[in-house]
Structures are given as structure tokens and as C-alpha cells.
Amino acid sequence: MEYCPVEYPDKFNQDISNSKAVHIYFAQAIPLITYIDDSCLYLKEKKCRICEGVCKNDAIDLHQTPQKVSVNVAAIVLSPGFEVFDPTVKREYGYGRIQNVVTSMDYERLLCATGPYEGQIRRASDMRHPRNIAWIQCAGSRRMTPGDNSYCSSVCCTYTQKQVILTKDHDEAAACTIFHNDIRSFGKGFEPFFQRAEQLNGIRFIRSFASIVREIPESGNVVVKYATSDSGVKEEEFDLVVLSVGLNPPADAKDLQKKFKFELTTHGFCKTRSANPMETTRPGIFVSGAFQGPMDIPESVFTASGAGAQCGERLDRRRGKLTRSKIYPPERDVTKEEPRIGVFVCHCGTNIGSVVNVPATVDYALTLPNVVHAQEQLFSCATNSAKEITDTIKEKGLNRVVVSACSPRTLEPLFRETLREGGINQYFYDMANIREQCSWCHTKEKDAATQKAKDITRMSVARAAALRPLQEFDLPVNKAALVVGGGLAGMTCACSIADQGHEVHLLEKDADLGGTARRIHFTLDGQDIQAYLRKIVRKVYQHPLIHVYTDATITEATGYVGNFVTKVTSERGRTEIAHGAAVIAVGAAEYKPAEYLYGEDGRVMTHLTLGEKIAQADEKILQADSIAMIQCIGCRNKDRNYCSRVCCSHAVKNALKLKSIKPEMEITILFRDMRTYGFSEDYYREASNQDVRFIRWDPDDKPRVEAAQAEGRAVLRVAVTDPILGKKIAIDADFLALAAAVIPHAGSQEISRFFKVPLGPDGFFQEAHVKLRPVEFAADGVYLCGMAHYPKHIPEAINQAYGAAGRAMTLLSNDVVTVSGSVCEVTEKTCMGCGACISVCTYGAIEFRETRQGKKAIVNPVICKGDGLCNAVCPTGAIFLKHFTDEEILNQIDAAIEEPADAH
Asked: What is the dihedral of CA 26, 28, 29, 31, to 10 degrees?
């Protein structure tokens, strides 16, 4: 059932509000049906049917019967997600028996504007705002006790930090305490995010296991017991305790397994291969998202694209056979009509409606010039609301539309589509952002927020009156792809695109393919990387649609989405490559340490070198009595404020391999936080069980290394403070392995300039959207995968490589690409040829053209992104941005500062 606003809220409440079958919530007295459960009397006894009679939108049909549908398919993608860990299975968590103990998912709802208290944080016991809140990490994760999970759920540390930051936004005086083991901020941007949370006033991160002792009956407060190395065991009272619960496999995993006949892991997730983490044990069935294992949103997004790409490999011959082009009504010419503006004000559930007086805003909109219709909508982006806008355009002859709702960044394309369905030009649309720029930032100032919503709406209406129709245009798409980088990610992406029938040009700067993988011989789960590497290199060279260029250097890259031209020098000589899409997969490099005697003493090496020596059966390494390892070398510091993600698992991998060869070898790993996330946690535990020693070091008290003599033999003496003993200890090691940081590829800046794509603050390539577009750039037609994006393990790089292939295919599988009409244009007569616009254009969309009047700037509308920088710097005003003309902007400004007398 779709979300359905009911026309008779009073009758609805009177008739069925006591029913436990119909689940509803309210947004300013507008009830919203969510679903009907199995307790429905009609479903059980053919009685009642009140809800069906009340509904005036025909959204409820109680006569539906189950139907079986047979569908013949070539591939299946399993994306059942995950289940949140249920802490009621462990009495010690107190959940379900102590009212002020909640899960992180419960707390997420408390923070949400559509939650039970409309975004206010309250205790269920007494409706009081909690002022002292504790989070207990790893609830249900990283434990071997019955009912818990042994693996790390990967996402809990960072979502807890997010909740702490949001809590402080709600109540600046709130005291927040986070009980944790390791802080696993291993993702892109996660380390600065942790530091942001840690540096807030009133925040404590306490490294300790914690347990809930009891509830205080008089206050409802919760007592937590914990221990620290400084103060020992102690108890502390909190108003509210949040359990940072982990991720379980989906509840129906075993049922899916029986139906589709694939294998599960011992943890209950889908069993896959490191070489292809989206491929199940049954050919033709793929998996995406958290059913692979605990993962964050970006990984879920690109595994979805990756699974789609692998389905595309199987379905390439049938591509486009079942698709149908959408047919729009003829576009009405309204250029000679007076503006007839329709305003639609969205409640956005309670995101806007709980702060802004939406009915008052609608009434005010009706008083504005040129507005002939205004109404409120519960969710303007819902299907029924969009249809309502379309119908209103037709019925009332609207020729402009303003939607006062959220940010245009996400939903503007949807509303433009709505205008096309209504028969008017899509650029006759303007979006007034009264959520991010109003209700969300003025939650405690409802009257002021309402006035601001009116102001923003008035400004949009003023701009809308000056809007002009624009036309988008189609360009042919070159069906070939360019992949820059011949490592595992680049080769995987190239093979996937080629297997879907498209020519691929693969560039590699070295003489051989393979990248960093040439130095990796085995993985934590035992995969032979060199055997896999040989297999994929052979496939690349034998594939008829893949052209390999080694010793390659890019000398020039020009063009635009669907039609790029890249000039390359390689072992083939000079080549000019025409292609429709480009994938950046240049990989990363290993930091060369300047500390701990690296480069001075041959016994000090990085983990990559240690892994190579183990694979080469180096006798000195294999017969060593003692090896020490120091983590976080060259990262998580001022120079590189990020975690290199892979180092902790590499250390554990090397330690376990050495222990399997010589069990009596003494191995010590000195770490800051062991970030063996996901299923790597099991190997961390195994290493500990095999007597690998783990000693935590503090950045303010780093380990020290010197060459020394011990009992007549030369050793590397590592001095470190043991936090358990509380004193310095010395470790005499035969060899020292350093977990050197993963740093950006040396050619990243040059590639960035060639393809007009940005680098992030850490030097890695910056994706278009960290969560929703993790393999795309803002520059259309250019994609991203592998360690060029950020450090990652081989399975993760392969996931993302398939994801980039999937996104590239959304372009290459089309014959044409549509380009925006909102681009810059030059009035040639006014242009003085100064070149200011050329100097600021990020995308290289402007160039000089010789005319009779001399050099004049000209904009390539295909490359132009409409950011308006050129518009701003032009001294003569010769260059203007369509859809953001001076007239439109000045109308907005005038409306902002010259409000009508009756605005209030």
C-alpha cells in the first residue's frame, strides 16, 4: 500500500484509531496509513472493512488474494539486507526490562523529526529530556558469548559518533559518554569525523568494556559499571543508555538459501569468493549490500551497481529488447502567456510540518503576484502528489511551478519530470528549500521559521515569473571506454565492460599489469593472489575487445561526456583514443617511512616487503625468533589525517602466516586501534589465541626503536609503554615490520587536471557524493574505482570495480546522452576577450575563437556544468548563465528586501 493521506481525519480516528491492525502516524492532524498487519479482522474473519470504506483514494483493497507468478530470468540479485541485533537475547543488556535502555536504532528514531516525539529526545519513562547519555559500543558484536556475534559489525563506531554530534545539536549542554574498545574509523573521512565528535564539549570516549548493573527505581536512571587503567572499576549513573547494536544476517537467509540453493557462511551471511565478492556459490546468482557482510552505505551502493554489471554480462545480447521510451505530451508554448504560478508546500512528514505552519504558508502564497493556485502536500515527492501536480498544471493552465520543500539536489529532476508530464517546459520550475534552509535549522523557532518559509517561497515565486523555457539536446555516445590504471581494479572493470560488448582501452604506466597486487601473495582467507593475478592478466590480453597500453603516459585529454579524446604515448607509440567514458583506477602507493631506522637498517621493512619475503621462503625471516610490528606509520597524523584501512588486517595476516610456519616465534604487534573490521575480527582473535601479543601505544608516547645487542646477538630493541602494566617495556626483535600508510598515486594531480575531476583533502580522488554516488565524479562520463578512491582490501576494490563498470554501462549502453539546458552563453558583441572566464572555468568549457572583432570567448555547452564562475568574473557582463539570469536573480533579491506590507 502506498502512503495515503486520508480525507476525513476525524471520522478516521473515530472509526479505526483503536485498531491494532492499521498502523498510522500523524503529521499535523493528517493521518498516514503505513500498513495493515495480520491481526486485521477482515483478513481473519471477513469482518469490519471500515478502513476500506473510509479511504477515498482507493488505496486499500481487502479483496486481494495471493498469486504465484513464474518469471524466466538469466540472473538473480539477492539484496535482503540485514537484521539489527536484538539485545533482548541477552538479559545483561537490560533492553526490554529497563525502560531507559534503548538501542541505537531506537535512538535514531528519537532523533528523527518523524519519530515518536517529533525529533525531541525524551525518555520513555517520564518524557524528560535526558541530559547525561551513555553509548555502549559492540552490543552483540566482537563477542564469543552465546547470543552474540564474533565478528565486528563495521558501522557502529561511526554511527555512534554521528548520534553524539546530533545529540549535541539538539542539546548543547548534554553530556555524552561513549564506552568503546577500539575506535574503528577506517572509512573515507571517518578519522576527522571521529575527531570532530571527540573534540565537542562534554564528550568522553572511555576505552572500557561496560555493563549495565541496575535501574534506580526513584529516577529511572541506569547504572553502568566499567573499568579504566587509571581509576579501576567504578559505577556511574546515566539518564539514558544507548546500546550500539550490530548487524545480523537477514532473518530469512536460510529460507532464501533453500529456495535458491546457494551456501551461507558460518555467520549466516551469503558465502562468496574473494576474487568476486558478488558471486554466490551458485552460478548466475549474485549478492549485493550487507548480505555479503556488514558494510556501510557507499559499499552497499557500489555492490548494487556491481551486481547489475555482472547481470549485464549475462544479458548483453538482450540489452534494450524490453525497454520502452517514455512518451510525454506535446510541450505547450506559454512564452506569450502571463505567468500563472502554482505553489505546492510540502509537510515532508513532520520534517517541515512540525516546525513551519504549512497551511499559513499556503494562504500567504495565494496573496503573491501571479500565483493562481497554492496547496499543501504531505509528501510532494510521493507518486500520488507528483500526479496531483501534473493534473493541476493541466486543469488550471499553470505555466510555472514552485515546490516549497527540500533541497533541489536530490529531487529537482523528479519535479522537472512532473512538469514535462503536465505538458510545459521543465525549466519553468523552481524549488524553495524550506527544509534544510529553514525547518531543520530553526526547530525551536517555529514562528520565525514560518516567516522565513514565507520569505523563501516569495523569493521563488518572484524568480519563477522570470523563468524562460530551455531546451536540452542529445549527443551521440562513443561506445568505447578508457580505463586508466592496470591494477586489479582497473583490469576487473575493463573485463566487465568488455564482457558487455564494449571496446576498452586499458592504460598502465608500468611495463606490466597488476599494480600493487604484484607484491601481495596471499590474503587473510588464504587466497593465492598471484594465481588470480595471472588468470585475470591472461584474460585481459586474450579478450578481443580490450586493448592494452603499457608504459603509458597521458599527454592530453579533451572532450565531454560520451565523446572524449585522450592522447597517449606507450610501447605502441603515440595513440589518439576516442571514447565515451573514462574510469580512473590508478591505484595508490606505499609510504616510504622516515622513522624507526627504515632505510638505515635492512632488518626494518614494510608489511608488503615482509609478505614478499614470507612468500619467497626467506630463511632469515622464517627462522627468526622474534618479530615486532608497529602500526599506523605515516597516517593518522597531521600530515595524513586518515586511516589506511588495510594495515591492521595485513599485520594479522603476516603474523598468522609466520605462526603457521614457526609456532614458537614471538610476534608482537604494537597498535593504536586494531581495525580488523567485519569478518577480519575472527582472524584477530585467532592471532591472539596463537600467542601473538598485542600492545596498544599512544600517539603522545610513541614506540622507540634502536639497534642493540642482547646475549651476543644483534637485535632491534623496541621500547613501548604497556598500558596494562603502566610502565615501559623493551622488546628485542630480529626484524621489525612497519605498517606503512597507503598514500595517493604520484600521478593523481596530473590525472585530476586532465579529466577535470577533483581530489579530496587527503589527496585521493573525490567522488560526486560520498554515500549515494561513490563511483562517479561531478564531471559526467568519468568514473572511479579501487585505491584511487581510498585504501581498501582486494575484495572491496573488486566490488567497486564492478560498480564503476555498472555505472559506466548506464552511459555506454545508450546511443545518445542528454545535456542540460542550464549552461553559460556569451554575448559576442560585449565580450572584450580578456580571458577571465577561461581562467576560472574548472571544466575547460570555454575557449577563444577568432572573429572579425578579434578574440571572443565561446562556451562549449556540452562541457559546461553551469556553475556560474565565469558569469561572476566577467567584467562586461558578456557571459550569462541560462536559468540563472540577472533578471531571475534580481527578482529574488528584490523579493527578499522589498517584501509586501501584508507579508506578515
From this structure: -30
Task: Collect contacts of 125-132 with beta carbons under 8 A, ≥24 apart.
Answer: 125/99, 125/100, 125/220, 126/220, 128/239, 129/171, 130/100, 130/174, 130/238, 130/239, 130/240, 131/171, 131/173, 131/174, 131/175, 131/239, 132/174, 132/175, 132/177, 132/237, 132/238, 132/239, 132/240
In degrees, to the nearest 5, what angle opens at C-alpha 692 toward C-alphas 691 and 693?
A: 100
Phi and psi (nearest 5°) for 23? -100, 120
pTM value is: 0.88
Give the Cβ contact number of residue 786 at 10 Å.
34
Give the pLDDT of residue 351.
Answer: 84
What phi-psi label fits residue 49: left (phi over 0), alpha (psi between -120 and 50 degrees) or beta?
left
pLDDT of residue 25: 39
Q: Output the average pLDDT for the chain.
A: 91
Q: Give the contacts of 541 (CB within 8 A, at least 6 positions apart).
A: 548
The pairing of beta strand 588-590 with beta strand 581-584: unpaired
Specify the amino acid at residue 272.
Answer: T
Nearest to 740 by CA among 598, 529, 530: 598
State the Cα–Cα distance between residues 51 and 555, nearest whole angstrom: 68
C-alpha cell at 467: 523563468
- Chain centre distance of CA 98: 35
- Residue 690 phi/psi, 5° resolution? -95, 20
Mean pLDDT of 706-735: 94
CB 245 within 8 A of CB 103: yes
597 close to 584: Cβ distance less than 8 angstroms? no
Strands (E), 805-878: 816-819, 824-826, 846-851, 854-859
Q: Side by side, which strands form the sheet with 604-606?
A: 604-606, 735-740, 626-633, 666-671, 693-696
Work out the average pLDDT over 501-528. Answer: 96
